[in-house]
Design goal:
heterodimer, A: Aldehyde Ferredoxin Oxidoreductase,  A, domain 1, Aldehyde Ferredoxin Oxidoreductase Protein, subunit A, domain 2, 3 domains, six-stranded mixed β-sheet, globular, B: two-stranded antiparallel ribbon, 8 strands
């Protein structure tokens, strides 16, 4: 099996808590985590529901490999409707809480309704209680985490919690777990807080058991770990440099956007790169990077554990930030740094700490600050409106003041908390919001790298690199090299990445394994753990089924082909300099072919044949 | 040759593969809470440290046990709890200076590392060699070698 076959259902309105068996027919078609929880969401809610109303549901879900010895098998996801995009939201996190859910005997927790007062859910195996959280409300995620640990006198409790911006309605609040891991994107933390649910604390000691074929399982996971260890990216690059290994690489190939994507190529990239994180600093001779750390069960260990220079202006009077904590990953370093034109690695590390401490998506936050900087420099937003923050590109002081404003909930902090789409609309400059479906871009320019532009435009949760990471092929040559400037073949490539990713996200595994693993490495591990025949073909078909189900949800929520687009800047304004000079996104050429490859109508709607083939009719 | 578990915190990433391997070997399930090797996270320091029984030659736990439930495995040198004899009195948990033998409420007995009969699963599962099973006489040699390297005359130094 490897599913626990048990779901916890918590109605926050009435306070009722019940368990129910997992729908195994659905598990056999959607596997777990992202796919299976989305199936529950689409069956149980109206796609047109207001994301922040009690009618939206909020699901925390593990995969069948979560809590097993499969490398990276510790993931969990939050699935709900996004308040930022209005589309499906599914945010995946590592750390240690996924295993704890599984060890408490749960595949999934479904939260319905809204609690009349702040509460947190406490789980100790079969003991499940909603407890008052009035004292936790108004606290940062880190403070609340410490208070819950102290209350229960249990250092082994694993906690998922939202910070103050989520409570205040910031639309890109994340759900933090284990202090510095996050279900980060699409405002899933905002939904959690809208239900007056401050935290989920769990302790599981039941054991994860019942592998379908233990001998085969240990052989396949051991083979899988060897593949990861022998691969240059997962065996060497990611442990030593983290995802930040990409900063200089992407800048070098003309794919690094800068200053709200006005430019491509950032002159300060080296100063905020992985290599810079290894450089001893002048003040104490220590590098930014303390060590690398792993999530549960992960044999890659890409996580960064960092410190900020104690003499840096951001922390010199704040000793509480002098210890080590979660450091910069590539996407955050880009959004907080290159996209704002800031090359001060200590400022970025501090702001990243604050994003973790109070549960903010650093991608959307950084990009929103970048858009605000462009509004400010264009004279569309005044110094009075920013509360006195000189929002100029390159100003580390402005970035630090901005994150503190969001956390404190100042007037301007609330404006930044809307995300760039609503903020730019408010200042009559919607064209300055670098978003798809209302969600901000990650760190790869769709003009310089064509496939990723199509992946952004068609991503079911708005602009995102983790829905189809074509960078692997277009830049790193994994599994085969495609030319970054070409649009030919990209629709097929995007579809293949999207479907495979949907399956990996449903298994309990980390997508970073796919730098080394193909489906022929992954399917046997699932097959050995789970009952049923999980062949490569079945896995790929399940991935495609999940993608189409998400698309149907979004279509029913009012999205159309018109939403599968990119900001004008990326379609019309050619890159001004560097190796990709002169390029714009060729989305218009790729999109119709993509629809055809997907078996969708020219309007982006899955055809009856496609739905029937995937069992979605 | 007697072997010892050799723990190197500097190499540990905190992934807990060792805890899963340990619990699976003993219980047939992945249950880190029941592992007798533990990885501790020191968040502020940004460090991880695996820790388990060092198999003392003159083991306090073995000497303290009033019912002779702890014996030495002569092949591996491990001090092993005989479950059928253990009465769960916990005196061994008080006597152990390192805290590496602990009571288990699910079984009513104590549990400690027994080196898996001389083939410890934790060492095999560790992806970074933070846990190795090596010649008991040589557990300091990697550190000795690192210091020895510092004494090498540098090829680039002329003085």
């Amino acid at each position: 099996m490897s599913w626990t076959r048990k779901i916890l259902r918590v109605n926050l309105t009435t306070g009722s808590i019940a368990t129910e068996p997992l729908n195994m027919e659905w598990a056999n078609a959607y596997l777990g985590q992202r796919g299976l929880a989305t199936k529950y969401l689409v069956e149980e809610t109206d796609p047109n529901v207001d994301a922040l109303s009690p009618e939206n549901i909020f699901i925390m879900a593990t995969g069948p490999l979560t809590g097993t010895m499969a490398s990276t098998g510790g993931r969990y996801s939050v699935i709900t409707k996004s308040p930022l995009t209005g589309a499906i939201a599914c945010s995946n996190s590592g750390g240690f809480i996924g295993n704890e859910f599984k060890n408490a005997g749960l595949d999934m927790i479904i939260f319905e309704g809204k609690s009349p007062t702040p509460v947190y859910l406490y789980i100790e195996n079969d003991i499940v209680e909603l407890k008052p959280a009035d004292d936790l409300w108004g606290k940062s995620a880190w403070e609340a985490d410490a208070m819950i640990h102290a209350k229960h006198q249990d250092p082994n409790l694993k906690i998922a919690v939202v910070g103050r911006p989520a409570e205040a309605g910031c639309l890109y609040a994340s759900v933090m777990n284990d202090l510095h891991r996050a279900a980060g994107r699409s405002g899933v933390g905002t939904v959690m807080a809208s239900k007056n649910l401050k935290a989920v604390a769990v302790r599981g000691t039941k054991g994860v058991k019942g592998l379908d074929n233990p001998a085969e399982f240990f052989k396949t996971v051991s083979d899988g770990k060897k593949v990861l260890a022998d691969n240059a990216v997962t065996g060497e690059g990611l442990p030593a440099y983290g995802t930040q290994v990409l900063m200089n690489v992407i800048n070098g190939v003309g794919g690094l956007p800068a200053r709200n994507m006005r430019d491509v190529g950032f002159e300060g990239a080296e100063n905020i790169s992985a290599e810079a994180m290894h450089e001893p600093r002048a003040s104490d001779g220590k590098p930014n990077l303390t060590t690398n750390g792993a999530c549960f069960g992960c044999t890659i260990a890409c996580g960064r554990i960092s410190t900020v220079d104690k003499t840096h202006f951001s922390v010199k009077d704040k000793p509480q930030y002098h210890g080590a904590s979660g450091g910069l990953e590539y996407e955050a370093a880009w959004s907080l740094g290159a996209d704002t034109g800031i090359d001060d690695i200590d400022a970025l590390t501090y702001v990243n700490f604050i994003c973790n401490e109070d549960g903010l998506d650093p991608i959307t936050f950084g990009c929103t600050v970048a858009a605000a900087m462009e509004l400010f420099e264009d004279g569309k937003i005044s110094l009075e409106e920013t509360g006195g923050i000189e929002l100029r590109f390159g100003s580390a002081e402005a970035l630090v003041a901005s994150v503190e404003a969001v956390v404190a909930g100042t007037e301007f902090g609330k404006i930044l908390g809307m995300g760039s789409k609503r903020m730019c609309e408010k200042y009559d400059a919607p064209e300055l919001s670098m978003t798809v479906k209302g969600q901000e871009f990650p760190a790869y320019d769709p003009r310089g790298i064509q496939g990723i532009g199509l992946a952004y435009a068609t991503s079911n949760r708005g602009a995102c690199h983790l829905r189809g990471y074509t960078i692997a092929s277009e830049i790193l040559g994994i599994p085969v090299k495609t030319e970054q400037a070409d649009s030919d073949g990209k629709p097929e490539l995007v579809k293949a990445f999207q479907d495979a990713t949907a399956l990996v996200d449903s298994a309990g595994l980390c997508i970073f394994t796919t730098f080394a693993w193909g489906m022929e490495d992954i399917a046997p591990q699932i097959d050995a753990a789970c009952e049923g025949d999980w062949s490569v073909d079945k896995c790929l078909e399940a991935g495609e089924r999940i993608w189409n189900m998400e698309r149907q949800y979004n279509n029913a929520a009012g999205f159309t082909a018109d939403d599968d687009t990119l900001p004008k800047r990326l379609l019309k304004e050619a890159i001004k300099s560097g190796p990709t000079e002169g390029q714009v996104s060729k989305l218009g050429e790729m999109l119709p072919i993509y629809y055809e490859v997907r078996g969708w109508t020219p309007q982006g709607v899955p055809t009856p044949d496609t739905l029937s083939r995937l069992g979605l009719s | 040759m007697q072997k010892s578990l050799h723990l190197d915190p500097a190499k540990c990433t905190g992934c807990l593969q060792c805890e899963m391997a340990c619990s699976y070997e003993k219980l047939g399930e992945f249950n880190p809470s029941r592992s007798v090797i533990k990885v501790f996270t020191f968040h502020e320091e940004g460090r991880f440290a695996p820790y388990t029984c060092t198999q003392c030659d003159e083991a306090w736990c073995l000497r303290a046990c009033p019912v002779d439930a702890i014996t030495m495995d002569l092949s591996s040198g491990a001090k092993v709890v005989i479950d059928d004899k253990c009465v769960g009195c916990k005196v061994c948990t008080i006597s152990c200076p390192f805290g590496t033998i602990n009571y288990v409420q699910e079984t009513g007995k104590v549990a400690k590392c027994d080196l898996c009969g001389g083939d410890p699963e934790c060492a095999k599962a560790c992806p970074t060699d933070a846990i190795t099973y090596i010649d008991a006489n040589a557990t300091g040699y990697d550190r000795m070698k690192a210091f020895a390297e510092k004494s090498l005359p540098s090829a680039n130094t002329t003085s």
